Amino acid sequence: MGIEKERPISVPERTVNRPRPTILVVDDEYFNFEMLKASLGNEFSLSYANSGTSCLTSAIAEPPDAILLDVCMPGLDGYDTCRLLKNTPETEQIPVVMVSGLETELEQKAGFDAGCDAYVVKPFSVKTLIEKIKTLV
């Protein structure tokens, strides 16, 4: 018996050419980050910030490809955080997806007025969220 040559493993083009997009998840509830990480971890590389202030610091230090931003947080809420992100030169181009249980047209309008690029109402379909993020990054 002869020695078999190893065949090259085919690697998907995405893996070869570029890493997974990075998503900064901003939520005062760590459990929500854990749920998103379990759902989105195969598609994206996720990092976490627990407040609007830490979001701004993280986004400037290591700009993500997109930000998933909870609306209802103590201190700087999602709307104010989004306004600050969109009015800061280092972060103004980062797409922001607001994620909230607030579902009225008025609340969604407030999100878009603050500068978000998309608004997703909880509970949401993971598939829909992934598609929405992929259109932005």
Descriptive overview:
By secondary structure, the chain is of the alpha/beta class. The protein has one domain (19-136): Rossmann fold. It is 41% helix and 18% strand. It contains six helices and five strands. It has a five-stranded parallel sheet with strand order 2-1-3-4-5, sandwiched between helices. Residues 10-15 have low confidence and may be disordered.
The computed structural class is alpha/beta
Main β sheet profile: 5 strands, parallel
Strand order of the largest sheet: 2-1-3-4-5
Low-confidence stretches: 10-15
Average pLDDT reading: 89
Principal-axis shape:
globular
Q: What is the alpha-carbon Rg in Å?
A: 18 Å
Strand content: 15-25%
The percent of residues in helical segments reads: 40-55%
Highest CATH level, the class: Alpha Beta
> SSE order, as H and E?
HEHEHEHEHEH
What is the fold named in CATH at topology level? Rossmann fold
* CATH 4th-level superfamily: Response regulator
Please tell me the CATH architecture by its name. 3-Layer(aba) Sandwich
Overall structural domain count = 1
Compute the number of helices: 6
Distance between the termini: 51 Å
SSE order and pairing:
Elements: H1 13-17, E1 22-26, H2 30-40, E2 45-49, H3 52-61, E3 66-70, H4 78-86, E4 96-100, H5 105-114, E5 118-121, H6 126-136
Can you describe this structure in just a few lines?
With about 140 residues, this protein is α/β, with parallel strands linked by helices. The protein has helices at about 15, 30-40, 50-60, 80-85, 105-115, 125-135; strands at about 20-25, 45-50, 65-70, 95-100, 120.
